[in-house]
Specification:
The chain is flat. The chain is built from eleven helices and four strands. 65% of the residues lie in helices and 4% in strands. The protein has 389 residues and is mostly helical.
């Protein structure tokens, strides 16, 4: 089936883009006014840092949207029943709410979903502006010695467009679990890309001096980052499958250290929400397995974070990030435990996502702000050690 491009109604997309431009004007004006007379490198770094902050907020609001069951508050994309806002779709939303008062479409849920889309569009505009500024600075690099290669901002722009596509598929595929998890991971990857640019820019301008790590500590840092990424994916799988309350006690689950679990159903990835690929309903032991695997993996992640924080604390110049890692690990343990024993309160659930996003930013900062120690090799000519470059 083909789509007639000429007859397609592009007005919702155009209005969404216009809304994103309007919302982005505020942050852009703030950066321009606050950095009047500053160097181009400083203005670019300020824009990147502000975009990182707003993207972090967007991830939190995305979690709020998901956890309030507002992901289908407007069941089409990019508009709401073909309109640019819930105001224009008042009649359709009212009819859906009257038919099912606690269903996925209500006026409150529609507004939550659309505000999330507006904020996402604004972040996209900011990233577009960042890419444009970076390309302009690159062309003028003889006069701007601190100009950075625009490849990173361009990659970030491509990534945010892909993230928008996953947002659309989240709606059109009716909260398909694998797509929801990929959308979450995409948002966190966007945070990592922006954080990497902040750090690289600071290093290039001399505002940040790198710390050299031993090969063993560098490997531990990479391993911990990989474990955290895996744990976030498992956590997203728990949330999107509504498996948080499959275990309501701690440290046991359903009064047992090894409750009945169905791992085959639990990790059947490509399936609709609440069902298996064959159309049958997912069994409760599968939800238990989803929850319990996330809990078991959490122990390994906490141990890795504790070891990394302790080893970093022993190094000069890394006391502050060590404290941040320890605090974020404790935050994740506390909010995760609250989700279980307090019946999944909204504040704890959103805070748990915020802690995961904080860990992504902290670990990305460490990976970009530190360098591996250069190995030493024996020099047969001098009979000693020299640095291997």
């Amino acid at each position: 089936m083909t789509m007639d491009v000429a007859s397609y109604d592009w007005s919702p997309i155009a209005r969404m883009m216009l809304m994103g431009v309007v919302l982005a004007l505020g942050p852009l004006a703030w950066v321009a006014l606050r950095n009047r007379g500053a160097s181009p490198a400083r203005r670019r770094r300020a824009l990147t840092l502000l975009t990182l902050f707003l993207t972090f907020d967007l991830v939190l609001f995305g979690a709020f949207t998901r956890l309030t069951d507002s992901g289908l508050g407007c069941p089409d994309w990019p508009g709401c029943y073909g309109k640019a806002s819930p105001i224009g779709a008042h009649a359709e939303i009212s009819a859906a709410q009257a038919a099912m008062p606690t269903g996925p479409v209500t006026h409150t849920k529609a507004w939550i979903e659309m505000v999330h889309r507006y904020l996402a569009t604004a972040v996209g505009v900011l990233i577009l502006a960042l890419a444009a500024v970076s390309w302009a600075a690159w062309r003028q690099r003889p006069r701007d010695p601190h100009a950075i290669h625009p490849g990173w901002p361009t990659l970030t722009l491509v990534w945010v467009c892909l993230q928008g596509a996953f947002g659309a598929w989240t709606v059109t595929l009716k909260l398909f679990p694998a797509i929801v998890v990929l959308h979450l991971l995409g948002g966190l990857a966007l945070l990592a890309l922006l954080c990497a640019q902040v750090v690289r820019d600071a290093r290039r301008t001399g505002a940040l001096q790198p710390v050299v790590l031993s090969p063993g500590l560098r490997r531990l840092l990479w391993t911990t980052a990989a474990l955290v990424l895996l744990q976030i994916a498992l956590g997203g799988w728990v949330s999107t499958n509504y498996a948080v309350l499959a275990c309501s006690d701690f440290p046991t689950c359903q009064g047992s250290w090894w409750p009945p679990m169905n791992f085959e159903q639990a990790f059947q990835v490509w399936r609709p929400l609440g069902r298996l690929a064959d159309g049958s309903h997912i069994a409760f032991p599968a939800l238990t397995a989803i929850h319990y695997v996330h809990r078991l993996a959490a122990y390994a992640v906490l141990a890795a974070l504790a070891c990394l924080a302790w080893r970093m604390w022993r190094m000069p110049g890394l006391h502050r990030p060590a404290r941040w890692l320890a605090a974020l690990a404790a935050w994740q343990f506390g909010t995760g435990l609250s989700n279980v024993v307090l019946d999944w309160p909204l504040v704890a659930a959103v805070s748990h996502t915020g802690g995961a996003a904080g860990l992504v930013v902290a670990l990305t900062w460490l990976l970009c702000a530190t360098d591996p120690a250069r190995a030493t090799v024996a020099s047969p000519r001098r009979g000693g050690l020299e640095v291997a470059r």
